[in-house]
Amino acid sequence: MKRLLLWLLGVALGVVVLLGAVMAVSYAFTTQGSCPAPEVRFGDEALEVNGYCWQVPLLSGQLDKVFASPETLTVQKLGTLYDAHPALTLPEWASYATLTIENTAGSVVYTGSAGDYAGFLFPANGEYKASLTVWRLPAGGTVPRFEGGNTGAIRRNSRLEKPARPTGWYGFSFRFTLQASAEVELSADRVEQGGIVGVAITGMTGDTAPTVETDLGKIQCARSPGGWRAYIPAAYNASAGSHEVNITVNGETLTRTITVLPKDFGTVELAPEPEASEAANNEFRNAVWPLYEQPAREKLWAGGFACPAENYMKLVDFGQVKVVNGKQGSKSNSTRLYTIPGDSCRAPAAGVVVLARNLALTGNTVVIDHGCGVRSYLYGLQTIAVGEGALVERGQSVGSLGEELTMDFKLGSKSVNPWLLFQSSGGLFWRENQ
Known about the structure:
Elements: H1 2-29, E1 41-42, E2 45-46, E3 52-58, E4 63-69, E5 76-81, E6 88-89, E7 96-103, E8 108-113, H2 114-117, E9 126-136, E10 154-156, E11 167-178, E12 183-186, E13 190-192, E14 196-202, E15 211-213, E16 222-224, E17 227-233, E18 241-249, E19 252-261, E20 267-270, H3 278-288, E21 312-316, E22 321-324, E23 327-331, E24 335-339, E25 344-346, E26 351-359, E27 363-371, E28 374-381, E29 383-384, E30 391-392, E31 397-400, E32 404-411, E33 414-416, H4 418-422
Parallel strand pairs: 5-11, 13-19, 20-22
Antiparallel strand pairs: 1-2, 1-6, 3-4, 3-11, 4-10, 7-8, 7-9, 9-11, 12-14, 14-17, 15-18, 16-17, 18-19, 21-24, 22-23, 24-32, 25-31, 26-27, 26-30, 27-28, 28-32, 29-31, 32-33
């Protein structure tokens, strides 16, 4: 019995020695090269590590070897950056990152995640200091920031993932001078009557909206991930030829030119219509015209618009010259469709219902604001199924159709060709996600 116990003790000691030897070898051959590469860039500059702590798994994740270096007061100098929003590029292994940016007065102008930084605009040109921490954590891990202690210390692995991978962070500290100037780009410099030109305004600082002035209409700017966006309509009756566009950004005015090309929309024979009463006209003006001047919402649509009626026949098309008793009149700013009573009237795109009521001039009327000054006006519905303030999605029913539907799509107060919207054609869909 005594021999058996001694044998068992010897085996146990042998196992311990073996495990110790394995651990020693594993420890010795696990180097800092096992940590992920700190491939982080701000703008076009590679950032230098200023402090780190990594736990590298040993023995299939049973233990960790720690590599650590405390953060110092050293600040990397990046020099002058000319991009108003220097891109923050993180390595593929990054789980999340926290970024804080201060101005020369020590006031924090931004603090948050790398994802939120994508929508941040610097308040002004000048000098800034930033601190960044980039983490790699196991999926679902909520480990708080830890201090590394002495390099080489062994810790127990958290075992939150299999196979175990290094867990930890790199810290960065850097300063830079921002010297950006605005840039303006048009989706096109030539557009047919009824079309839309997209405007991208980038490379600017501050939250003050740019102003866009042109005789083609009153233009409003809306924020975009990269700066500001605007859309310029070439209405059905816009004069052919060159039109100057002046974009003022932070006191600097940039000028572009758009050439409007004439388009023949054809003619349509119409029977005389009875004149509306002054009361009906006043009601319409009081309900609808103020919408033309409403501030531009953020962009709400995504992709092409849908025709409100799935089954229809055109009665009067956009831009057609109306002929009554053989005499040519004005062009049509709207499109009138023959529809099937009771069919669903669909929201052309996502938006907010800003008008839903019966008007003497246009019958049951629904107006949807799609953002950036784009609104759809739907007249002559049989019934209304939404209320003002409701959020609607593309294709959602806003009511039922009667025998005729009149639809008018406007940028501000200027009507544009709806068929281009249904075809996802033109400046309204240029750089949609930028």
